[in-house]
């Protein structure tokens, strides 16, 4: 009898968090069949990330992660059972699928479930490298990038993870996860209980603004380094990811104008601003 995914693993769950506009623009710029390949990859990632953040029963979470570890083995054995992996198996040239990227991503998800606080930036960056770094590396491979982009794409994935740690801070904190290093919270005098407040004044203060400005500047520096390290000859194939990065950077640029009020609302670029960034991104 063919092994079936547990009910918690299929179909992919949808988070209550609004879809990332930068990711949506990036997908829109991809030609077929790459768009379908990357959409399938994102379905896998979104399903697992939603489970880690929103499912409280650790037994269910570990069962789902274990199922996906086995499913990735089935994918590379050409015996996939999930719709997303079946699409990748049927339509994607196998040289574009890198087992190490999938394994690093899944092991990063396992570590994330067990760790809801980070003592310092190296520990946060390690997790970002495992999860988002591996995901962007695999996305780049699906878009046709060569191995020369490996380090730049890993760095770009880390930058995107740092941006998400800021943009989703209030949402994730109320689910029990704070992705700002503990030593930096202490440095700026901000407590987790302040960030998790569920009513006005929502934890806002001059201390909080200074903390988020520090996070913002580091994320922007990470983006700039990653983009500078993309080989010129690879940029046409990677344009969707470059646009996604520029949109994330534009969002970070907007934070001071919004007085860093990210805890109680989901701040988004205006459609006109997003369009302009997407057509001028280099």
From TrEMBL:
<dbReference type="Pfam" id="PF00494">
    <property type="entry name" value="SQS_PSY"/>
</dbReference>
<dbReference type="InterPro" id="IPR002060">
    <property type="entry name" value="Squ/phyt_synthse"/>
</dbReference>
<dbReference type="InterPro" id="IPR008949">
    <property type="entry name" value="Isoprenoid_synthase_dom_sf"/>
</dbReference>
<protein>
    <submittedName>
        <fullName>All-trans-phytoene synthase</fullName>
    </submittedName>
</protein>
<dbReference type="GO" id="GO:0016765">
    <property type="term" value="F:transferase activity, transferring alkyl or aryl (other than methyl) groups"/>
</dbReference>
């Amino acid at each position: 009898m063919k092994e079936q995914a547990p009910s918690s693993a299929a179909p992919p769950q949808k988070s209550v968090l609004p879809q990332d506009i930068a990711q949506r623009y990036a997908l829109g710029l991809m030609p077929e069949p790459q768009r379908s390949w990357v959409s399938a990859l994102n379905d896998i990632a979104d399903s697992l990330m939603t489970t880690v953040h929103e499912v409280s029963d650790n037994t269910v979470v570990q069962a789902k992660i274990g199922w996906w570890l086995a499913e990735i083995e089935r994918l590379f054995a050409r015996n996939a059972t999930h719709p997303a992996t079946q699409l990748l198996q049927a339509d994607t040239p196998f040289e574009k699928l890198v087992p190490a990227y999938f394994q690093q991503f899944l092991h990063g998800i396992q570590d994330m479930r067990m760790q809801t606080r980070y003592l310092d930036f190296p520990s946060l960056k390690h997790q970002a490298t495992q999860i988002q770094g591996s995901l962007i590396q695999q996305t780049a491979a699906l878009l046709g990038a060569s191995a020369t982009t490996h380090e730049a794409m890993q760095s770009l994935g880390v930058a995107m993870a740092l941006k998400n740690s800021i943009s989703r801070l209030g949402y994730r904190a109320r689910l029990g996860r704070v992705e700002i290093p503990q030593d930096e919270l202490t440095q700026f005098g901000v407590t987790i209980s302040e960030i998790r407040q569920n009513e006005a004044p929502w934890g806002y203060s001059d201390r909080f603004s200074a903390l988020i400005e520090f996070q913002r500047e580091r994320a922007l520096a990470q983006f700039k380094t990653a983009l500078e390290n993309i080989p010129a000859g690879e940029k046409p194939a990677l344009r969707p990811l470059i646009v996604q990065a520029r949109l994330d950077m534009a969002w970070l640029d907007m934070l001071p104008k919004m007085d860093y009020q990210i805890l109680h609302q989901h701040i988004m670029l205006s459609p006109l601003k997003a369009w302009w960034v997407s057509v001028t991104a280099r």
